[in-house]
Design a protein that fits this description.
With about 240 residues, the protein is an alpha/beta fold. The chain has a domain of about 160 residues: P-loop containing nucleotide triphosphate hydrolases (Rossmann fold). Helix content is about 35%, strand content about 25%. It has seven helices and ten strands. The strands form two sheets. A six-stranded mixed beta sheet has the order 6-7-8-3-9-10, sandwiched between helices. The longest helix has 18 residues. It is globular. About 40% of the residues are buried.
């Protein structure tokens, strides 16, 4: 499978009703296949940046290229939201076909097997646990054959045991699909476990306060390495090490 696209990001804005830019001279290049984590306080613009990368947010100035194409003209990315956003009146397989109408039965079975939901085609969303709903949301994102995967707080409101299971699944997906990944997280530990690189955003308008290539191999870092990385994140945010 081909590696995911390079990203080239140059943003001044976006400009909302107040006329105040959300970003200040944000310049960032992401090589294909890299897993990039975005860290910063709530409201800093992390989700807005994902929306710009997906091509659905147009109220900004600059240039964002996905594989050399403007974001709005690039192939559809896979997008996993903060909540599963499943359609409760549709079954599991119908939720997948809501974004990929031509999805064959065999491909649905394959996707569900890949995310640990084998045999759940006819289940209703309300019958799935919170973790299973997140797995289905990931399967839905993968149903469009994305080369770019955008993750917006994919583990929020889940207990840590469930998060660990889902992190293992995401790591496998990153490896198997060789996608470029941009992941928003409020939890530095998630970034330390899953990402190759992390960007810390701070200020108003937001700027890149730190750009860190993370040591070791994602998914294989020791507890000590993870602790050291999270401490570096904290130091980038404030002198006493408190990540907002």
């Amino acid at each position: 499978m081909a590696q995911g696209p390079d990203l080239s990001i140059t943003i001044d804005g976006p400009i909302f009703g107040s006329g105040v830019p959300l970003f200040s001279d944000l310049r960032l290049k992401v090589p294909g296949g890299q897993v990039l984590a975005l860290i910063g306080p709530s409201g800093i613009g992390k989700t807005t940046l994902l929306r710009i990368l997906s091509g659905v947010e147009h109220r900004w100035h600059g240039e964002v290229l996905v594989g050399g194409q403007p974001a709005e003209k690039a192939p559809m990315p896979g997008y996993v939201f903060q909540d599963a956003r499943l359609l409760p009146w549709l079954t599991v397989e119908e939720n997948l076909r809501a974004v990929a109408p031509d999805l064959a039965d065999a491909r649905i079975s394959e996707l569900l097997r890949e995310v640990g939901l084998a045999g759940q085609q006819k289940a209703w969303p309300h019958a799935l646990s919170g973790g299973m709903q997140r797995r289905l949301a990931l399967a839905r994102a993968l149903s469009v054959h994305p080369s770019l995967l955008l993750l917006d707080e994919p583990f929020v409101s889940l207990d840590r045991a469930m998060v660990r299971d889902l992190q293992a699944l995401f790591l496998k997906v990153f490896s198997d699909f060789e996608t470029t990944v941009v992941m928003v997280s409020h939890d530095p530990e998630d970034a330390a476990r899953l990402a190759d690189r992390a960007i810390v955003l701070l200020g108003r308008p937001a700027r890149i306060a730190a750009d860190m290539l993370l040591p070791g191999r994602r998914g294989h870092r020791s507890i000590e390495e993870i602790s050291h990385i999270t401490a570096n994140f904290a130091a980038a945010v404030d002198p006493i090490g408190a990540v907002a």
